[in-house]
Automatic annotation (TrEMBL), chain A:
Keyword flag Manganese: no
Family matches, as PANTHER family: BLR1237 PROTEIN, TRICARBOXYLATE-BINDING PROTEIN
Keywords: Signal
Similarity field: Belongs to the UPF0065 (bug) family.
Protein name: MFS transporter
Automatic annotation (TrEMBL), chain B:
All copies of domain DUF112, residue ranges: 20-438
InterPro entries noted in UniProt: DUF112_TM
Swiss-Prot/TrEMBL keywords: Membrane, Transmembrane, Transmembrane helix
TM stretches of this protein: 20-49, 61-82, 118-140, 152-180, 257-281, 323-341, 353-380, 386-406, 469-489
Protein name (record): DUF112 domain-containing protein
Amino acid sequence: MMLKRLFKAAALAASVYAALAPTSHADDYPSKTVTVIVPFAAGGNTDAFGRLVAEQLDKRLGQRFIVENKPGAGGNVGLGDLARAAPDGYTIGMGTVSSNAINQTLFKSLPYDKEKGFAPLSLIAILPNVLVVNSEKLPVNSVEELIELLKKEPGKHTYASSGVGTSIHLAGELLATKAGVKITHVPYKGSSQAIMDVVAGHIDFMFDNIPTAAQQVKAGKLRALAVTSLDKASLLPDVPTMDSVIPGFEATSWHGIFAPAGTPPEILEKLSKEVQAILHEPEMKAKIEGMGATPVGNTSEEFASFIKDETAKWAEVIKAANIPLQ
Amino acid sequence: MDIFSDLWLGATTAFQPINLAYGFVGCLLGTAIGVLPGLGPTATIAMLLPITFGLQPESALIMLAGIFYGAQYGGSTTAILINLPGESSSVVTAIDGYQMARKGRAGPALATAALGSFFAGTVATVLLAVAAPPLAAVALEFGPAEYFSLMILGLVASVALASGSLSKAFAMIVFGLLLGSIGTDVESGTPRYVFDVPQLYDGLNFVAVSMGIFGICEILRNLEHEQERSVGVKKVTGLMLNRDDFRRIRGPVLRGTALGSLLGVLPGGGAMLASFAAYAMEKRVSPNRAEFGKGAIEGVAAPEAANNAGAQTSFIPMLTLGIPGNPVMALMVGAMILQGITPGPNVISDEPALFWGMIVSMWSGNLMLVILNLPLIGLWVRMLTIPYHLLFPAIIGFCCIGAYSINNSVFDVFIMAGFSVIGFALSKLRFEPAPLLLGFILGPMLEENLRRAMLISQGDPTVFVRSPLSLALLVAAMIVLALVLAPSISRKRDEAFTE
C-alpha cells in the first residue's frame, strides 16, 4: 500500500517536473557547457577553424564551448560520436569535404545512419588546393604544358597525395578524368611527407592545401601552376585557377559546422545565426584569410545544398577513377 | 653566415625574462607529463594550443618546445623506476634501466639518463645552429627507396635487442609486423583486420600497446611475486654515479649522440629508430656486452643520449623546410600557423629572432632540465619505497588516463588492457617484448616505403640498389645479418645469454 502511494507521488512529481522543466527553448540555450567535436587531430586545419569559431561562440553565448578532438578513420570516428550524441544542441561538431561529402561514397559502411546524416549549421571556410610541380623534374610553366607532357608520356609521371580518397587525391583523379591523362597516384599518410617528397624530386607533382605549399612556392622550391578554387587565392594572387584551363574544375577542402540530426530547429537557427555573424566580423575574416582560406558563413539551407552538390560531384569522380570502396 | 651575431640575436630573444619563464614552465610541464605514464607531449601541446594564441610567437614556441624535450627527460623516469615507457623512445631505456633499479641502482640510472640527455642535447643544439640547412638537404636525399633500406637495417639490428633465444626474437618481430598491418592499407585504402571497428582504421595505437605490454604487464608480474620485489627495493645504494660509471658511459653517450643526431634529422620515424639503433649498436661494441639486459649502465646511457639528440635534431626539417617529421612537430607547425607564421624554407630569413631564439632556448632549456632533474632523483627513488599496494592502483589509474587522452577514446584503454594480458602470457613463455614493439613500429613504414618505391619506379625492383645511399644501407643490413647468423658468434651469444 505504502509503496503504491509512494509510486503515485513520484509519478506526480515527475509529471510536474516535466511540465516545469525548460524544454529546449532557444531563449535559455545554452545553459551549460557545449562540446565541439573535431573529428581530426589537434593542430590541423579543421582543428584550427573549429577552435577559432568555438572561442567566439564562447564569448557571444556566455557558455564554455569546449573542443574535443576525436580523430580516426578519416573523420568517421568523430562523426559517429556526434551522431550518437543527444540532439539537444550541447554537442556539435566540425565536418569537412572528406568526412561529409567523400566518405559517404568511399566507405561501404559508416558508424552512423547515412540517410539521416547531420544538420548542417554553416560553412566556415574554403581552403583551396594548389597544383605544384617540382620545377627541376618537370619543365612546365602552365597547366596546358603539364597536360601536354602527361599526354606525351602516359603513365610515366607520379603525383603524391595525403591518402586514398582525400580531397588532394581526388583532385588528381579529377585532373586525370577531365584532361584524359594517365598518371600514377602515390599515396602518403598525411600531406607533410608527401610535399617533402615533391620538394626533393622523388615525386613529380601534387595538389596540396595552400598554406604549406605556398611557402615552398615563395621559397622557389616548387612551381605553382594553378589553384583549384573558382576564385584566385589570396596567398598566391598571381596563380591562375584550374577553372580557367579546364572549365568546371573545382576541388577544395572545405570545413563546416554541424549538429546531430534531430536537434530542435530553434537551436539550430540560433547557432547558425551566431556562426554566420562570427564569420562576418572583420577580425575573424582577416584571421581565416591569413591562413590562406576564404571565410564563408552561409545559412543552413545554403550549406545543405552545397554539401549535396559536393557529394554528387565526388561520387562521380570516385566511380570514374574506379577507386575501391573501403 | 655570421653565426655569432645570429646566436647573439638568439640569446637576446631566449634570455628575455619572459621567454626564460615560459621556457621553464614548458620544461617543468614536460617533465611532469613525461613522468606520468601515457600522458605524452602530443596530448599536452594539443591542450595548450589555445592558450598560446595570446602569447608572443617566440614565447609560445619556446614553451611548446620545452614541453617536447622536457617529456624526453621525464619519460625515462617511469621507464627506469617501474618499467613503464610512456613513449616509444624510452622503450629500450626500460630494458636495462629497470634491471638497474631492481638491483638498487635506480639513482645512477636516472643520473645517467639526465646527464646523457644533457650532453646529447647540447651537441645536437650546436649541430642545429651550425649545420641545419645542409642536414636538411641530407634528409631530402631520403626517398621511399632509401627509407625502405633504412627500415630493413633497423629490423635486422633489432634482433640484437633480444637477450634470450634468437628464434624467439624473430618470432616476436614477426608478431610485431603482423600487429602493424592492422588498419587501412595506405596504398589502396582497403581496411585490413579491422572487423568493421572504426577505431581500428588507423591501426593500433603504439602508446596503448606499449603501456599494456610493458607497464600494466609488469604490475601483474610484480603482484605475482610481491615478496621478491620489496626485497629488491630496500638495498638502494648511492644516488650519483661513481668514477667507474662515468668511465663506462663516456663512449656510449658519445656514440648515442652521434647516431641520434643523424637519425633525428630524418622525418617519418628517424628519431624513433634512434634509441633502438643506439642500444643495438652498444650491445655489439661494448666490452660489457654480457651485462646487457641485466642492468648494464651502457644500455641506459646510449639510448637516452640518442633519443634526446634525435628529439633536438628533429626540429631541423620543421624549421628549415617547414615539414613536420612527427606528430609533435605537426602541432608546432599548427601553433606557428595560428600565430600567423607559416613555417617554410624562409623562416630563417623572415623570422630570425624566432629561429635563433628557439635554438638558444633549447640549450638553456636543457640546462634547466638537468638542474631540475638531478635533485629530483632522490625524490623519485624514494617513490619506490611507497608500499606497492598503494603504488600500483595509482599507476593503473594514470595509465588509463594516459591511454584515453591519446585520441580521447575509451577504445585505446581496452587495447591497453588486452595487451597487458598478451604481455603477461608472453613473459610467462619467456618471449621478450622489445623486438615485438620494434616490428610493430617498423612494419608499416617498411611496407609503405617498399610499395611507394615500387610505384615510383613502375615496378622496377633495381631501384633499391641503383641509389647509392639505399645500396649502402642494404649492404650494412647484410653485414649485420651475417654477424648475427654466423655460427661462432651465435654460439658465443647463446652461451652468454640463455640461461
